[in-house]
Amino acid sequence: MGGAPRTLFRSRAAERTAHWCNALSLPVLELLPALRAALNLHPLVILQAPPGAGKSTGLPLELLSEPWLSGQRLLLLQPRRVAARAVAARLAATLGEKVGETVGLRVRFETLVSARTRLEVVTEGILTRRLQHDPELKGVGLILFDEFHERSLNADLALSLVREVQGALRDDLRVLIMSATLDPSLPARLGTHIPILESLGRSYPVDVRYLAADPADPASAVAGAVTRALASDEGDILAFLPGVAEIRRNMAALRERHPEVSVLPLYGDLPIAEQNRAIVPDPARRKVVLATSIAETSLTLDGVRVVIDSGLTRTQQFDPGSGLSKMVTSRVTRDSADQRAGRAGRTAPGVAYRLWSERTQPLLAAARLPEILSADLAPLLLEVAGWGADVTALPWLDAPPPPRVATAQSLLTELSALQGGRITPQGRELLDLPTHPRLAHLLSQGASLGLGPLAADLAAVLEERDPLPRSAGSDVARRVWALRQHRSGGRGEGDRAILERIERLSRQWRSLLRVRPDDTSPDPEQVGQLLHLAYPERAAQLRPGTLDRYLLAGGQGARLPEGDDLAGQPYVVAAHLDAGSGEGRIYLAAPLSEAVLSAQAVTSDVVEWDSRTGTLTAARERRFGRLLLGTQPLQQVPEALRVSAVRSAVLREGLGSLSWTNEARQWQARVLSLRAWRAGEEWPDVSDAALLERLDDWLTPHLGTVRRREDLGKIQLLSALHPLLPWPLPRQLDELAPTQLSVPSGHSIKLEYRPDGDAPILAVKLQELFGLADTPTVNAGRAPVLLHLLSPARRPVQITQDLRSFWQSGYFEVRKDLRGQYPKHPWPDDPWTAQATRATKKRM
């Protein structure tokens, strides 16, 4: 009995859907037979269709009648809450119903579903949360990833998890990826034999117009462009701006110039009622909608015939090096510009004004970067850990960059959400709170500390836009007090519309935490204590001699606005912080009690080498991160710490900090020469770079007595280096690379070896070689030395490696010059047979 009425209802709903879709002749429906066949045979299908083809509003209802979906639900994923609400409302209206009947909606803090619901429109993050609690996705037969070209972080994560579910748990689960523009490499990265269907759509022609030259400030040029379009073009106008501030400025200007026109904003933080006003046509007046990039996809604004594109977008860029994010305004990509222009041709021919020159167009980047390559990965990593997977093992389209993964893991470990890379019970609690892990930690631990009402208010303040003007300074407690005054009906400061949004969010958090509101004036240090739970690495210590410059626990520098109320506080914790270039700018912060930091401080003995004085310093320090909370001299210094400090100093300052004798440097050059000459043998690398890498093998054992730079000079480096040559290499070193050679005069002359393997130099007086025919050699006769033949005054007169040729020719030229300069020295006519000597001629 219970099943028959529902079957009858679905049949009637399908009939109404088919009638409506046929009436509109949605282009994508031409692919319906091929799509049905593909989904019947394949678990994963790709559909490419341009905006307006009916992907979101036509296909989902048609697919509900598929036999393989009988008794199961269809999930339609949307990248944004605004789009999800609009699509759900459009689909429900198609059936003549309200959202929550056949068509349901799930977004954060809003669920409209019933036992009758067959199609759920959900945001991408909702799906990942659902997977954590129900990995099999019981009762779900088809998932539609809409607007997948946006490549949001949650979309990539959801697709990765769903593909794991398909492979391990649900071979009957089907996935349809829908995109307005298709990355050519996408099918190959998803796997082989994936059907790809393409709809050409039915977009009306759009006349794209450019400026003659790029304006200095495109956002400021929007109001003028709207005025010109109102005079020359028909239909409603949709203008794209980078952010809320630019929307408000242009809205004020246009409302003053054109009171006859309805000028409305559209951005994600707007209350639902105001979003609907922007989306729904105004039957009485012409409409101008000023929107962020939220209006690029999914949403259909009926009546829009003109698009004005500032060419700007604003996104958060995460810096893994600092662990901070900053808002960056940049040029749109070409695919985004095309999406925006396409809004003008949804229902009739239109016009798109691009506020840049046509020669700039090809210089724009082709497509936006997938969010997984540039975003803060802490939420993703917590989800993956909750899933029980290794982030490197999931089937990603683009693997998360390792440096960003490491930064996220470090943060989650500091928040006690991960331990050894695995999720903790605390991490499980954070997963259940639908917000960033930082704020989830603030809410969870705040409630445990008995500060639940303040945690709810504070988290809501941090998630929403600032209700106070920039001139109000950085004090977060002031924002919480403004919220509480607003809630109690008082006449406090702040934007009332923003405060009302903050209160709605705080109400949701209070409900989850099961606490009642608190409207008393907040304790600033309790605000700081809670902020510290969310941003431990942003605890900051006032730099000596300043009132507004701080050192963060993570090691970065940051600065309060000039004249800020928090200036001079010994410790603060920053909530909103721009990484900046070098020194960041603190936008929101609270004072922090030193006791909070002391409770988490780590005490350690620190022994360091002072390069300026050349001495060791030793102290017992209490630190939180890079913040020094206290120090006292260390009387007894463990030898291991002392040796480690000196070793680090040598690594930092280089081997030049040691006292090298000529013998030690010659030993190094001899070994390196043999290493170059006898490449097949095991002569070690004893270059300076290699010696620094192997300090523990030769120098560290000799550092135990070093306390100052003078002690370094006392180390006998030659003795320290000897262990680097294992037996029998020391003996071979003396045989193959002797330190000196005997010459015919009977003297032994020192050789000068060179570390690059060039011939060693034998600097010897010319007369000491009389009678020697061939150039002396080393390396068992394989390496002739380089002879520097010296005058009696020990000045070089000839450099050669061919002594025989010198005696035959060069000698006589040299003899001619030297005989006059040094008449008391022998200069024989026949050097081959003359007696080698150092002395002058004997007196007669």
What does this entry look like structurally?
The protein is of the alpha/beta class and 844 residues long. The chain folds into six domains: 196 residues, P-loop containing nucleotide triphosphate hydrolases (Rossmann fold, 3-Layer(aba) Sandwich), CATH 3.40.50.300; 164 residues, P-loop containing nucleotide triphosphate hydrolases (Rossmann fold, 3-Layer(aba) Sandwich); 132 residues, Four Helix Bundle (Hemerythrin (Met), subunit A), CATH 1.20.120.1080; 69 residues; 127 residues, no CATH class; 84 residues, no CATH class. Helices cover 36% and strands 21% of the residues. The protein has 28 helices and 33 strands. The strands form eight sheets. An eight-stranded mixed β-sheet has the order 4-3-5-2-6-7-1-8, sandwiched between helices. The chain has a six-stranded parallel β-sheet with strand order 9-16-13-10-12-11, with helices on both faces. A five-stranded mixed β-barrel has the order 19-20-21-23-22. A hairpin with a 6-residue loop joins strand 19 and strand 20. Helix 12 crosses helix 13 and helix 15 runs antiparallel to helix 16. The N and C termini lie far apart (144 Å). The N terminus is likely disordered.
| CATH-scheme architecture of the largest domain | 3-Layer(aba) Sandwich
Rg is 39 Å
CATH fold assignment of the largest domain: Rossmann fold
Fourth-level CATH superfamily of the largest domain: P-loop containing nucleotide triphosphate hydrolases
Number of self-contained structural domains: 6
Strand order within the widest beta sheet: 4-3-5-2-6-7-1-8
Mean pLDDT: 90
* Fraction of residues in H or I helices: 25-40%
Strand tally is 33
Helix/strand-derived category reads alpha/beta
Assign an overall shape: elongated
Total helices: the number is 28
CATH class of the largest domain: Alpha Beta
